[in-house]
Amino acid sequence: MINDFNFWLTGTGWAAAFFSNERQNMRFEFSYLSDPLLELFEALTKLIKGQSDIEKITFLDEPGEHILIITRQKEDVIGVEITRSDTWDSMSEKYSTLGEKEIVYSDIDTLKNFASVVCAGIDNLLKRHTLSEYQEKWHLSAFPAEAYDKLKQVTTMT
Questions:
Q1: 21, 25, 97, 106: most buried by Cβ count inside 10 Å?
Q2: Residue 29: helix, strand or coil by DSSP?
Q3: DSSP state at residue 46
Q4: What pLDDT digit, counting tens, does each position of 7-28 carry?
Q5: pLDDT tens-digit map of 92-146
């Protein structure tokens, strides 16, 4: 089970994500060329509402990417996998055969715990940065407050 998630703004247009459980830690940097927080909030909301059984969240690097894949295995049990590629495979179907995807993190968790740990990490982010500081550092995207509020709402309902 995941016991820690954190999202750090590391510079203008750059951030780092951190996932850990009792056996493994995964930290990676990525750029503002994707908006993974919005994708993550929307993905978790869909999974909690039962509108989806698999969601992929892309964290673009320059070059390369990490992809967080959350797969419902049964009712509230999910598989969590992070893959790494040296190319932007997710950007275009025609490039999907380029680059090797390496699994760099794998876990089994409950959807409720995973969403709760993600929300705790985001609450910590919001304690470190105001919304205007977030947008200034993240560059192209404002903090997805509406999507985060929806996620918190459905998380507390379960």
A1: 21
A2: strand
A3: H
A4: 999 999 999 999 999 999 999 9
A5: 443 444 456 899 999 999 999 999 999 999 999 999 999 999 999 998 889 999 9
In the numeric block, which tokens belong to residue 6?
A: 């954190």
Instruction: Tell how strand 77-85 and strand 4-11 pair up.
Output: unpaired
First-to-last alpha carbon distance for the chain, in angstroms, is 18
Domain count, the chain: 1
CATH number of the domain enclosing 84: 3.30.2450
Sign of the C-alpha dihedral computed for residues 31, 33, 7 and 77 taken in this order? negative
User: Positive or negative, the Cα torsion across 131, 52, 107, 26?
Assistant: negative
Q: Can you tell me the distance from the alpha carbon of 5 to that of 21, in angstroms, rounded to the nearest whole number?
A: 9
134-143, Cβ contacts within 8 angstroms, sequence gap of 24 or more? 134/9, 136/12, 137/9, 137/11, 137/12, 137/13, 138/9, 138/13, 138/15, 138/32, 139/12, 139/13, 139/32, 140/13, 140/32, 140/35, 141/32, 141/35, 141/38, 143/37
